[in-house]
Design goal:
This protein is α+β, with helices and mostly antiparallel strands. The protein is 36% helix and 10% strand. The protein has eight helices and five strands. Strands 2-1-5-3-4 form a five-stranded mixed beta sheet, with helices on both faces.
Length: 201
């Protein structure tokens, strides 16, 4: 079958997709977007987390056919997505009455953004998003395998809750496993991103 959907603001078409093929496989092998990692293939580790119509999902559990006509954001497009969100007034103020609803950016709003040049394909050449820079500054990246999923999940958290408690952060990231760390620097990174986001508002 052929699947048409939007990835990081661009229309994409995947041909010869078989019924059991996952969104993760299509992203990595057919579209050349290796940011989402293939670890457990059971939805247990969170390494393959992407946003589907604004909602974080494990792409290994989503059948490719389910994304027909829908919007996907991967870690490669996260910085451009964050910029577009800020331009539309959703820079994390949702948790403080910004009126974004429980899922942050709506599907219609998500479809209005478009990445510049080839940035959403490689993730290179763009200014990092708040959460990406915070992960670097807090030293939250070690081997990096879990990092894309953590970034996508943390970005979604900060979109809807601009001042998360430690419990909020732990709950939001509970589906993302990291084998390298004790998670403390990851929590520090999300706290740092939240603080910077609050200063920018």
């Amino acid at each position: 079958m052929r699947v048409n959907f939007t990835v990081n603001g661009r229309q994409q078409e995947a041909d010869d997709v078989w019924e059991g093929e996952s969104l993760l496989y299509v992203l990595r092998e057919r579209l050349g977007l290796p940011g989402s990692k293939n670890a457990c293939e059971q939805g247990e580790c969170g390494s393959c987390t992407v946003r589907l119509d604004g909602v974080p999902v494990c792409s290994c559990l989503v059948a490719a056919g389910q994304v027909e006509g829908r919007d996907v954001v991967t870690v490669e497009g996260l910085a451009d997505f964050a910029k577009q969100r800020e331009a539309h007034g959703h820079g994390g103020a949702c948790g403080t009455g910004g009126g974004c609803g429980t899922q942050g950016v709506s599907t219609d709003e998500a479809k209005q953004w478009s990445a510049k040049g080839t940035d959403s394909q490689t993730g290179e050449g763009v200014e990092l998003s708040n959460i990406q820079q915070a992960f670097i500054d807090a030293g939250a990246v070690q081997c990096g395998f879990c990092t894309p999923g953590l970034l996508v999940q943390a970005d979604a958290l900060l979109e809807t809750n601009s001042d998360p408690s430690d419990q909020d952060i732990r709950e939001a990231l509970s589906g993302n496993l990291c084998r390298c760390t004790g998670y403390e620097k990851i929590l520090d990174a999300v706290r740092l991103a939240a603080a910077r986001q609050g200063e920018a508002v």
